[in-house]
Write a structure and sequence with these properties.
Layout lengths: L8 E6 L6 E6 L1 H11 L4 H21 L14
Antiparallel strand pairs: 1-2
Length: about 80
Amino acid sequence: MPNADKGPRLHQFTRPSNGEVVKVYAGVKVGKALDEVTMDMTVYQGVRLYEVLEAVYDQGFKDGAGLPNPGRPRLHP
């Protein structure tokens, strides 16, 4: 497949404070950046990153709340 490396992928981010695994769906580049950032992370930095990711997710959820699912387009005779 020529486009096998495109599209969102599941990246698992482990919270350093309690070991909880958070699923992050992101593209390949963002996933590699997340892996790079979390490689040598202290507990404080991990908690701060988790708070930022949670805030971004919550804002995206709010932004998309009023939008209908795109679904299949209507047929116009």
